[in-house]
Amino acid sequence: MTKKKKTVGKTDADVILIGAGIMSATLGVLLKELEPGLSIEIYERLDIAAAESSDAWNNAGTGHSAFCELNYTPEKSDGTVETKKAVQIAENFEVSKQFWAYLIEKGLVSSPGNFIRKIPHMSFVWGKKNVDYLRKRYEALQKCTLFSEMEYTDDAKVIDTWAPLIMEGRKKDEKIAATKMDLGTDVNFGSLTRDMFNHLKEQENVNLYFNHEIRDLKKNKDGNWVIKVKDLETNDTRKRVAKFIFIGAGGGSLPLLEKSGIPEGKGFGGFPVSGQWLKCTNDEIIAKHHAKVYGKAAVGAPPMSVPHLDTRMINGKQALLFGPYAGFSTKFLKNGSFLDLPKSIKFNNIRPMISAGLHNLDLTKYLIEQVRQSPEDRLEALKEYLPTAELKDWELEYAGQRVQVIKKDEKKGGVLEFGTEVVSAADGSIAALLGASPGASTAVSIMLELLARCFKEDLATDEWQAKIKDMIPTYGQELSDDADLCKKTRERTSKVLEIENA
């Protein structure tokens, strides 16, 4: 680490990572590859890695690449479709795939078949207005090379060849349309995260502690950070000192950011949203569907609640999920406390939180309606995608908690952000990740942003630049502006990750 990071006091570790999810795993591997001599300590309150938002059952979107998620391409007031966010997410996902390909090539994680496989990504809509929107979305995205392989059709017979299950029992005169990207993938971030932590545990000067909860953290006068950590098995509490802290605790990040006391963290709040799935229990139905089919969200729904009929591979077995159905809980984590939300309200964020609530009454109404749903109501939502669905073939599964970011806004007082945000101290000694979607799929780009903020001097060195380009060959370039580079990059990562043969 550079002189900026060379503090005068004694430390127990160079880096402490809080939370054993995909973000901490990604940052840990990146740092250890860039600076092998770093000492790293990782603390997780549960007894296994990736048990919260990174877990396959809890993760609302596996392999977000903006191919099919319609919430990333909103229709503007003039009728045109905004593609900026979709292009950025697709670009970021290509960065993630390059990093994962590096992990495979270097033998840092096991077979790609354990965490990624090829599966078509589809958007599916009905009704004239939605069909017109989807066609405009397709035409707008075709201008970008990242989406050049996308197919569009409003022919029911073609859609039937793409995803026959969603066409069974559907009215023949219904106006429908769909897009498809065969390049889509299904990613099990739980498996990938655990693979990366298994690698890290084998490295020198890396220690991973489960059943350990961070109770407090503060900055010393010497520039180091002190954390107070409790061993939940023995009830012993001890202090650990590090030069750099990363708070990657999912919904638990906001309370820890507040405890840090850094000025950059003031004014942030969180709005928790829970989720549920309908999980198919009929193997014959599961075998008939092989696609991720996304539709349009209801008015007021948060982006993570975009409905989809989703084929996944979980624990080596194909699964079929529908949802998520949103709900409200004051917990910030699936294994959290009902006091999480009230405890997070501070003098510096109460105004932004109240303002955000007043400006998002549609969301409040939507969540109330979702909470009050009966099994029959959930079935009716499923039937819009699967007309022949029967309740006996599906069971309710609880998904993870998401905490949407609330931040100060000069005009509105406070706004609800549907995305991820890195909050870091001015001196780069601590950083926290807040928010949810698209999260895991863009973890590598998010952590590269963190490196640029918190390890700026290190990142400018020839050694780090060369190593990052070894891990991510297109680092500093944009595939969306270079068709040839995009093609070559995708061909390489698909071959290494065995996506083309999955």
UniProtKB/TrEMBL annotation:
Tell me a GO biological process for this protein.
tricarboxylic acid cycle
Give the EC class as a word.
oxidoreductase
Task: Note whether Membrane occurs among the keywords.
Answer: yes
State the EC number(s).
1.1.5.4
Q: Transmembrane residues, as ranges?
A: 12-31
Q: Which SUPFAM superfamilies match?
A: FAD/NAD(P)-binding domain (SSF51905)
Write down the InterPro entries for this protein, in alphabetical order. Answer: FAD/NAD-bd_sf, MQO
One of the entry's Gene Ontology molecular-function terms is: L-malate dehydrogenase (quinone) activity
Q: Which reaction does it catalyse?
A: (S)-malate + a quinone = a quinol + oxaloacetate
Q: Which cofactor does it need?
A: FAD
- Keyword terms: FAD, Flavoprotein, Membrane, Oxidoreductase, Transmembrane, Transmembrane helix, Tricarboxylic acid cycle
Tell me the route in metabolism or biology where this protein functions.
Carbohydrate metabolism; tricarboxylic acid cycle; oxaloacetate from (S)-malate (quinone route): step 1/1
- Look up keyword Flavoprotein and say if it applies: yes
> Origin, by domain of life?
Bacteria
To which protein family does this belong? Belongs to the MQO family.
Q: Which NCBIfam families does its entry note?
A: mal_quin_oxido, PRK05257.1-1, PRK05257.1-3, PRK05257.1-4, PRK05257.2-1, PRK05257.2-4, PRK05257.2-5, PRK05257.3-1
Name the UniProt record assigns to this protein: Probable malate:quinone oxidoreductase
Q: Which organism is it from?
A: Pedobacter psychrotolerans
